[in-house]
Write a structure and sequence with these properties.
Chains A, B: Pfam families: cNMP_binding. 2 copies of one chain form a homodimer. Chain A has 190 residues and is α+β, with helices and mostly antiparallel strands. Chain A is built from 9 helices and 8 strands.
């Protein structure tokens, strides 16, 4: 299963078997049940999570108790509350499992240690963080200036696999529309 | 003036005089007039920009021609369209100068070269990108689940200097409110 992490890293930098074994020894593998919290608002965020299997969502809750989905997490992706993880502070969002999920957990100290030990791992994480920047920028642009229909089309184009895994009411919440509006989009799709 | 870049880098990693001179030789200094475009939608984004002086804004335009401000840029900050810069593709936003601005321009090839040459510069850019991630995450959380009054308070708390430099109608656009609503916030502030 941890082969997925190696393939993921090796899309950017190549590793010897010994290097990968050393890197992997800095992760802890953990299984989470459906609906289980991985990150909880108000608690310290100790880890970044590489997703081996399952499906997750991160979301914030507004003053009226309404949930707003920030992102989904799928196998081969990373997820955490990065503001809290980088600052080693408490979470301002929740992350929980839409499906049972197996995650490789990397502490902040171990991430920094690996980056200091290997220039190429520092390079790997810089490149991954660049990609996250792009995804976050796209999310902001989409929230600021796209219609719900455009946001739906973008999501379907970028992450078609999400539509297989994620319940419709969560897709609707991510897009900021009602389920009724979402089903109109889906119909216009056929 | 380029001392500002050295101080900026040395908040994260220390440099010798020779190292800084070598790094600086990879930047091109350029002056921009008020209202001049630094990045223009549809054009290739060749550079990331370190701001020595002035004030900038990045924004996208929706189908109705309405401008939505993504971020502001102040001295000691970086600004570009990162999606286009990292992908060496065309911009999906505009960046222009609110005030005359002096920028240090770093091409993508030079950034990668410096990162490959110096592990500590790779470290510096990873850390800067982490910080940008946090800022982008905050912007998303704020767009998803904060009221306009909360967004105003957050902006004032984080970047008080913006309120000195940036015209009120641009602050209103950033917050997604009318100028009239903004002046009510400002009054309740006194």
């Amino acid at each position: 299963m941890s082969e997925l992490l190696r393939q993921h890293i090796e899309k950017i930098v190549l590793l010897t078997d010994a290097e990968f074994a050393h890197i992997l020894s800095h992760f802890v593998s953990k299984k989470f049940k459906k609906h289980q919290f991985v990150v909880q608002e108000g608690q310290v965020v100790a880890h970044d999570f590489f997703i081996l299997s399952g499906c997750l969502k991160s979301y914030s809750t507004d003053v009226n108790g309404k949930e707003h989905i920030i992102q989904f997490g799928m196998p081969d992706w990373w997820i955490t509350d990065y503001q809290a993880y980088y600052g080693q502070s408490v979470a301002t969002m929740n992350i929980d499992c839409i499906e049972p999920s197996e995650l490789l957990c990397l502490s902040y100290a171990n991430r920094e240690k690996l980056c200091a030990e290997y220039h190429k791992i520092e390079h790997f994480f810089r490149k991954k963080t660049n990609k996250r920047n792009v995804a976050l920028q796209q999310r902001i642009l989409s929230l600021l200036s796209s219609t719900a229909q455009e946001r739906y089309d973008q999501l379907l184009q970028q992450y078609p696999e999400l539509f297989q895994k994620v319940p419709k009411h969560l897709i609707a919440s991510y897009l900021g529309v009602t389920r009724e509006t979402l089903s109109r989009f889906r119909q216009s799709d056929k």
